[in-house]
Amino acid sequence: MTDKVSLLIKNGLVVTMDKERRIIPNGYVAIDGDKIVDVGKGDGTDKYRAEEVIDAEKGVVMPGLMCAHTHLYGALLRASPWFAKIEPPTDFMQNLQRIWWALDVLLTHEDAYAAALIGSIMYVKSGVTNFFDNISAPNSIEGILDSMEKAVNEVGIRGILSFEATQRRSMEEGVRGVKENERFIKKNNNDPTKLVKGAIYLHASFTVGDELFLMAREIANKYGALLAIHTEEGLVDVYHNIERYGIRPIERMEKLGFLGPDVILVHVVQAIDDELKIIKKHGAHVAHNAMSNMLNAVGVPNVPRMMELGINVGIGDDGYIFDIFENMRTTYLLHKVWNLDPRILTPQDVVEMVTVNVAKMFGVENELGSIEKGKKADVIIIKPEAPPTPVNENTVYGHLINTFTGRDVRTVIVNGRIIMKDRKILTLDEEKAIEKVHRTVEKLWDRLMSEGKYQLDVLEFKK
Fold it and tell me: pTM of the predicted model, to two decimals?
């Protein structure tokens, strides 16, 4: 007697990422509807009759990967001629003023849609099934998250969308940003059928006054929503807080009652040990963006110390390189060379940073992050064409970090639905979607080249 299921994946090396970190050679995953109903050894056909069977062909079957932090609109500036026009920034603050703040004032709903569309496509192609994005578009605030949600839904993956609230121009603008987040949270977060959820995002403590911090905390408490903020990415954040408040950013957040297990601190590059202990004390999480930190030349956060303290760390891309395998590999290598110690970080540590750690960070560890009975069916299949050495239960973590790339991801399943099969996205016409994005980008670049200018806002927190 066999049970009927909607989908059966067989003949795979199943990397479960469950509590025991079981790896099952020649294993199967049975899926019915949006749930995993079984995982085990063998091909599963003696137990299940499936509407559709996928032969993994000895490829790696594992939970969908997750990105702890991104800016989807970062993709819109890839290789832009704008970079040749501006005077090259010499530090992080000039990066913001000359590049990102010059861009964000020009962004429209159409641009946001295009960013979410191409970002979601790139994520599917590299095995990412869930992400946390925030957008800054001060002249297109109201409703912009709906424009992005439309694109993410067209591709069919999960996402957390948020607007970057800041008062570097005015308090009123900061409130509007928080309110856009609140509106989207109310619309989406209590609807179990929606794969896209909302959260509250504050830009950074050097562009946010106490009132906005307290407002964000109050709304998060009201709706049980996540809070996130760029934290000590550059030294400007530290110096501003010490000059204005006499304390460092993380100390200030603690004093305001902002920190908690629903808070994601992004970057945390400049934090001292006392601040890391504060993060641990309040159960906050850290989204680490190694490649972006290198690009912006801001430094290297003390991730090994965070792990030693038991702080939960996940990997993000900060809107730079969307192939999560490149971000994993960079994370694996960066801390070894920075600390002159090749023992720092194991391949398994890094794989946890894009699966179970991010699931915990997003508050969905009971639903996502591992392949277990009863969890949501977010599953990917990785099948490299020519691995240099055998891929088996003893080597797979090493291959995930040192061998595989996003191009090796063959199949992506989200919520039980096949989104990509044999590298072909099934939910949309990829070629037409990319053409649409390129048309939008060309118009954006034209505006940037003609209208783009440095944003030298003095962080006055005007009322």
Answer: 0.96
